[in-house]
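Reply to thread "Modeling small-molecule complexes from scratch"

Following up on the discussion above, here's a worked example others can learn from. I took a protein sequence and the SMILES for S-adenosylmethionine and predicted the complex. Inputs first:
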Amino acid sequence: MNSNKRFNPNELAQYVSGGYETINGMLQSGAASVIWSLIELQDVLGVTGNVAEIGVFQGRTLLMLCHALNQGEKAFGFDVFGIPMGSNKEWPEKLDENLNRFGLGDDTVSVKTVDSSTLAPEDIVATFGGASIRFFSIDGDHSVDGVLHDLNLAKASLAEGGLIIADDLFNAWYPTVTEALYKFLWDDPGDLEPIAMISANGPLVTGAGKLIIGRSSFANKYKAGLKILNRDDLKHCDPFAGFADVPSFYFEDLPQKYPLDGRNLEILNEILAK
Ligand SMILES: C[S@@+](CC[C@H](N)C(=O)[O-])C[C@H]1O[C@@H](n2cnc3c(N)ncnc32)[C@H](O)[C@@H]1O
């Protein structure tokens, strides 16, 4: 066990198995299960760094990502909190309550009230102390231009081995998000590619599908890990936006995640050694 973690494995398991449902917001059990695996895989792959989210709301997803943090790593949240900006007082209050409840009332989490369209890549990277983000969740402005802008902020911010979690893939309420994801991956993905598709598994008000995006140099490693740990919920692998073999996770029942230990870890290490 990595004793440098801010939350221990039991606390992470508890958050995934119900803790997240004590927070109003959009994260479903299927996505939580896959992100749980990604957090464990980052530890095996030696990926470290901060976490960030645009569109924090009351912190349901940001708190999930905080479970990845090592001591000394930080979380950054951005939200416009109402129109006009800052007019919604309830959401940031609830967010503070939730952070305190999970022991994050110190300076680990920094939340800024801002319209992300006013942020520039170089400014946000400076805020993060460099390209240091291991998980960047995008769930703010859902317009094509808004999502593209936020994807480019995330692209500039990723640590080596860092991942983007793009919310609302294939959400019928927000077709513009899927349009933006295709456009980003077709036009100018740099060294990024889709790593996994996660289906929605619950009412739309509690969330939707997600697309995981990461560097090509890490894609096969993450894919192999997810295929081992979330194998019961792996539906098939499909081409997506011009990239081959993107695993798609679909949940008929409660998600099943296998532990990253024993034979599972051995198999992963054998694959990583090739
Ligand atoms: C669907 S909610 C996010 C849910 C959240 N990720 C969770 O885990 O529950 C969308 C959030 O994006 C914020 N938002 C919308 N447009 C934004 C913008 N341009 N900049 C920053 N935040 C924005 C909204 O205020 C809202 O809190």
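What I'd highlight from this example: The chain has a mean pLDDT of 97. The first helix runs from residue 9 to 16. Questions welcome below.
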